[in-house]
Specification:
The chain is 39% helix and 23% strand. It starts with a helix and ends with a helix. By secondary structure, the chain is of the alpha+beta class.
Length: 338
């Protein structure tokens, strides 16, 4: 197929571009992926931007690149390609093919005057760690108080580590996921999303679990791997064991694994600008920080804080739901979030 071969050749391709990630989106949320390219049918691809249509409660769907993805670089070859694709997307929006377009590039898009017609969407911080130095040097680069000491403390207290992709690991991860989302008064993603992700992405996805010396479930993360980049995608924990250093311990294990497998970069994923605690946590791993924002068309498709009051009202409701109802709410809402 042209798309997988194109991804193998293109330096900007990430796990979020892959057929596995796209199949998981399709199976879970019925998001059908579409690639827009200037290449002719039958020719090898030279550029491409992949999108999914995200359902709307009312009216036409949104075109998003890509739902539930931290960042998706437009895989374009030159300025002419950027301009042609952005123009096509804007014109198709005006014609009513979809209500809006949202791009999630991990950097500032340049190269087309058409960009002036696209507005700034939600802003994020992206953390990446260069894995070229030795493990010893990487460990020395960690914050001594908040990260190094917590990792060592977890090791001293006999924190147990395991990894896998089986049903037991999946259910243990989801149990912690529900617990974590409850603390934030938000519903978790559907269980089937995680199951489909593991099945579709295959060996490029891994669940990493930490347990206390007594076998108590303390925390879990999901990491993804593509080419020479490892990515931290999901994390959850039991708050009772935060002081033991559960999350630093798990992430250091993931960094060690990435380094040994030949990865050159560890991607900590995006963080919302307002989440200063998460940003500071990632800073403490010695990761390089960069800012980026989504691009939207029309420019009025996203307004800062427009829905914040709705979220606060919803969180008050979610906070009082039993676990089964909270999980059901996630299944209902996530297909429309994207």
């Amino acid at each position: 197929m042209r798309w997988p071969e194109f991804l193998r050749r293109h330096a900007g391709a990430s796990i979020f571009h892959t057929s596995g990630w796209l199949r998981a989106l399709l199976r879970t949320y019925d998001y059908e992926p579409t690639v827009f390219t200037s290449s002719r049918a039958g020719e090898a691809l030279t550029d491409g931007m992949v999108f999914c249509k995200v359902k709307s409660w009312f009216g036409k769907p949104r075109l998003v690149s890509l739902p539930f993805s931290d960042h998706v670089a437009p895989l374009v070859s030159n300025r002419d390609s950027v301009h042609a694709l952005l123009t096509f997307l804007a014109e198709s929006t005006e014609q009513g093919d979809w209500s809006s377009v949202e791009l999630r590039p991990p950097y500032v898009l340049k190269g087309s005057a058409k960009l002036a017609e696209y507005g700034e969407g939600q802003a994020f911080v992206l953390h990446t760690l260069d894995l070229e130095p030795s493990l010893e040097k990487l460990f020395r680069g960690l914050n001594k108080d908040s990260t190094q000491r917590k990792i060592l403390k977890a090791q001293r207290q006999g924190m147990k580590y395991e990894e896998g992709r089986g049903e037991r690991q999946l259910r243990e991860f989801f149990r912690l996921c529900v617990m974590t989302r409850r603390r934030k008064a938000l519903p978790p993603p559907p269980f089937e999303w995680f199951r489909n992700l593991l099945r579709c992405v295959g060996e490029n996805a891994k669940i990493r679990i930490a347990k206390t010396s007594k076998g108590e479930l303390a925390g879990a993360i999901v990491t993804l791997h593509f080419k020479d980049v490892a990515l931290f995608k999901y994390g959850c924990s039991d708050a009772r064991f935060h002081k033991v250093g559960t999350m630093p311990f798990l992430l250091w294990k993931a960094i060690e694994d990435a380094k040994s497998s030949g990865a050159r970069q560890f991607d900590f994923g995006r963080s919302e600008m307002k989440n200063s605690g998460l940003i500071r946590f990632k800073d403490h791993f010695g990761a390089q920080r960069s800012n980026f924002s989504h691009k939207v068309y029309p420019a009025t498709a996203w307004e800062p804080g427009a829905d914040s009051w709705k979220l606060e009202v919803a969180k008050k409701v979610f906070a009082h739901l039993p676990d089964r109802a909270l999980v059901a709410a996630g299944k209902l809402l996530y297909p429309h979030i994207g």
